[in-house]
Every structure is written in structure tokens, then in C-alpha cells.
Amino acid sequence: MPGEHPLVLSDTVGFIRGLPPELIAAFQATLEETRDANLLIHVIDASSEERALRIADVQGVLQRIGAGAVPVLEVYSKIDRIPGRGPGVERAADGRVRRVWLSGLDGAGCHLLIDAIAEHLNQSKDRRWLMIDAPAGRFRALLYECGAVNDEVELQRGGWVMEVTLSDTRWQVFSTTPEIAAHVSEIAREGSLSEFDFKEIERQTA
């Protein structure tokens, strides 16, 4: 998934129409987890004739438990049961992805869901361009492990220039760790790495 995360996924109890108050109370702890979520993924049976009613039921329950303001990504699954319906993405007026159409059976469109989740989570993160010296190879590996690397160019003198997506909090931790700070610096530039003058960068940092 593009961008540094990691992720914590939690599967809550399914919703049914007319969910009685006593059942909500029984699952209160599980349902309350939704209030603390960064994003709710609502999986919908796209082939169901009652999908509009079921969506309304879920929205009603979310309001009742105080989670009505949590961002929701609607995932319309089972499109393989709908003739002529292919995978796709629908966006809201503000440009945010609000619906993803996919098939869990054959995997069509699943990559769109991954991209949509990453796009939402990366809204709180920034792109950064880092100069990483050769002795910081372990830090470079760590960036790959946490999924933060967007692009990379190896320098002739050794080391790398990397385009990464990191949160301010994570970067502050990295940049104030002595063994990392000694060999890693942030480049105050923007644009893709293909637009960089690497000879100039190497000359300035030599």
C-alpha cells in the first residue's frame, strides 16, 4: 500500500435491519471502536435489491453510537453478479473517494480499494525528499519495510536520494535519532526524482 502506515484493521459486528437496542448494548464495546476509527469501510452487496435500505440501516446505527462523523468508504462488492458492471471508483464533490466497485470473487477492482484506503490515510502525511548516505543503509531498509518509499535514485558517490511519504510525527522521531540524523538530510525541493539535477545535488552535499 503506498505511503507509510502501518495499519490496524478491526472487523466489527455486521449490521442488520431493525437492530434492537438490547443487541446494540450487547455489542457496545465492539461498536464503539468505530468512533475512534480514521476510516470506516462499509462493504455492501452490490447485487442486493435491498442495498439502499441496508445502507440506511448502517447509517442509522452509526449515528446512534456516535460514529456518524467518521469518514466512510463504501465498497460495492459482488459486481460479478451484475451484468455489464465493471470495477471503478466514484468521488465526492471534494475529490475524496466515496465508493469503490469490485468483486471479491475474481479480485477485479481490489487494487482500487487498496489505493483508495492509502489515499485517505496519506492525507495526514507529506511527501519528503531525503538524502541518505551509504552508512544509513539500515534506515533505508526500514523505510521500505514501513511502505514509505515512493521512488529512489542511487548516487554515483554512494548513498541514495529517496522520495518518501511520512507523517510529521514519524519524521520527527527519525530526524532526532542521532545515528539516523548523522547520515540523513531532507532536501528542500519538490517534484518527481526524474526532474532532479543529481550532479548538482552531489556537488552541494560532497
Explained architecture:
This protein has 206 residues and is α/β, with parallel strands linked by helices. It contains eight helices and eight strands; from the N terminus they run ααβαβββαβαββααβα. The protein has helices at 21-26, 28-32, 51-64, 110-121, 137-145, 168-175, 178-181, 198-205, and strands at residues 40-45, 72-77, 88-91, 97-101, 126-132, 149-154, 160-166, 184-187. The strands form two sheets. A four-stranded mixed beta sheet has the order 1-2-4-3, with helices on both faces. α3 links the parallel β1 (40-45) and β2 (72-77). The protein starts with 20 loop residues before the first helix and ends with a helix. The mean pLDDT is 84.
Q: What is the SS-derived class? A: alpha/beta
Give the neighbour order of strands across the main sheet: 1-2-4-3
Radius of gyration: 22 Å
Instruction: Give, in order, the helices and strands.
Output: HHEHEEEHEHEEHHEH
Outline the biggest β-sheet.
4 strands, mixed
Strand content: 15-25%
Helical residue percent band:
25-40%
Give the uncertain stretches in residue-range form.
none
* Structural shape: elongated
Oligomer: single chain
Average the pLDDT over all residues and give the rounded result: 84
H/I helix tally = 8
Distance, first to last CA = 34 Å
Q: Say how many strands there are.
A: 8
